[in-house]
Specification:
This protein folds into two domains: 351 residues, Methylmalonyl-CoA mutase (TIM Barrel); 141 residues, Rossmann fold, CATH 3.40.50. Helices cover 48% and strands 10% of the residues. The chain has 22 helices and 15 strands. The longest helix is centred in the middle third of the chain and has 29 residues. The protein is globular, with a radius of gyration of 23 Å. Bound molecules: cobalamin.
Amino acid sequence: MALKRKDILPEPELPAGSELLDRGSVLARDWRLGESAFLSHVGHACEADFKRACAASGRITQHAQIGFRDPDKTRRAFAEVHETCARQGVTVDRSGICLDWSMGYARDDRTEEMRGTGLLLEDIEDFVHLTQAAPVAPHFGDFVLGFPAAIENTQAALAAGSTAIGNLGQYFTFRLPGWDDDVAVTEATVTALGLIAAQDVEILVHSNLDDGFAALFTDLASSIGAVLLEKYIVEDLIGASMSHCYGHHFSDPFRRLAFQTAMAQVTETPGTMVYGNTVSYTGGDAQNYASLAAYLLCDITGQRHTATGHAVNAVPIRENSRIPDIDEIVDAQLFAGRLVESAQGYDGLFDFERAERHGAEIAEGGRKFFQNVMSGLTEAGIDTTDAAEMLLALKRLGSKQLEQAFGAGLTDADALRGRAPVAPSPIMEEVEHMATERIGHISDDDIAAVRDAGFKVLVATTDVHEHGKLVIERVFANVGIGSIDGGISADPDDLVATARTTGADAIAISTYNGIALEYITSVKAELKANGLDIPVLVGGRLNQIPKGSNTSLPVDVTSELQAAGAIVCGQVEDAIPALLQTPGRQS
Ligand code: B12
């Protein structure tokens, strides 16, 4: 069915992109790039120039991600990681931080209740202080662009001398709790992009594809399509430089390499970093070291063959169980440094031609996706020359609808998005695989019993992590449990309202953001206020930062969740006995 403007942008009037960009360039009169220890050290005007110089000389650069909550410890980590590695002959070129999601709200609107597991930089001095801590390129990605606070966060990042600011990918998929005004978010983001474009040095607008649509597309060609769309908006419409990151969900080495060659075929601006393949960290230290080596070798040899400017990112091997400490970050960087040396011997052993051929197919599919989106939006009545309209239309359509309507693959009724992917995305294959594996843990008797009961379960997430929800939905569909879509980053009151209107028999909540207890307590209170008594199942990462603490380590809250009346599920199949014990069903 053809898309119509009224269904995507029903507002009679929206802020014009050109006006927002003008507003941004007026701000640029006062907000200019400040000094950073990195730029003084390397003697380049911006990180993009530094990246081009490294690529030209064949040097592989390294990115370290630092995830502490405490600003002092974060500064210490910037300095210690750089210094300790330098003493052993390894250069950490850039550092990113995991900012807290409450940084997305305007400074004056932030409250302690909103805080998640990340770092809060209260004011500009905090940003500046950080970038002076070590001569590493400061990367301000998460929760800067794409949120209500986009302008003030961008001003602070610029003042602190950062020339890589993001994360546009998050604009498309992340939602702050309690925040529904996507027009205001778009307004702030486009104004901030105008401020960036008006700087007299090149600032990379960073986008982590895996934070955006790539985590949920079934086809890698669609992800290259997203690269082209963001490049079109940022470079052609806004006049800034677009720089991409990818990697979390790219577990298959061949497609990981092919995707890098596809990127090289459609972009010229240097990439920020290749993110570590974090979803492969499912074991203990020894197993995770194997995963680290596997993806790093692929990324290093990829950069040696086709330098796209991406820094390689060695994710510490305990990242799946807790926020890594300084010595663990150092270990991962030293590991990467040694692998950069060892990788030289592997050059002739990789089939780059085959990877490039597949990359060309992915790039071709990406161009098709881009063209399909552009003509589809034009036909719908969207002004594709207006950056704000383009961003808002893409955000509102979302990954599933975009891929269904505009994907490059041929129509296939059996495929998840109704199209056979050009290059299946590894993460969606993993989700399918995990669902099949979990179904194997459910007995035939239990399957028969849930089928008879005809349960309808409302399934939702508290945050952006959606794969747990997808696995639950796939398993439920297979064993005959109906799923009602409660959405992503759902607010507790909205979730309970949906439970009431749909007559759900239970609520299944998948949570990863360190807010499990607070969220479940609110859901239980909302249920009580609405006179509903249905089971609340919860699974995922069940931890929370203790109130009033500045520790970087969230603590497990399983027993508190149980005390609050939730049914804690370690695996999807734990939902089955819990549902079968449900005393009464809503009529
Ligand atoms: C993939 C991933 C992402 C992707 C998510 C993509 C997407 N759209 O889904 C991206 C890159 C976007 C992302 C973003 C972030 N992430 Co993340 N992410 C992960 C990662 C690598 C995997 C999580 C996952 O989806 N696993 C797949 C699921 C299916 O596997 P599983 O958990 O084993 O699931 C089983 C069970 O748990 C169960 N289950 C799950 N839920 C439920 C619910 C019910 C009812 C039932 C019955 C069962 C059940 O079902 C599954 C099968 O049995 C983890 C680290 C890790 N390796 O675990 C970090 C991790 C969860 N992320 C983390 C963080 C901090 C973030 C960010 C805040 C980072 C940032 N600053 O931007 C943002 C989130 C921002 C936000 N607004 O929410 C932290 C959480 C910290 C904590 N709570 O201790 C982790 C642990 C990494 C870390 N150590 O720092 N992330």
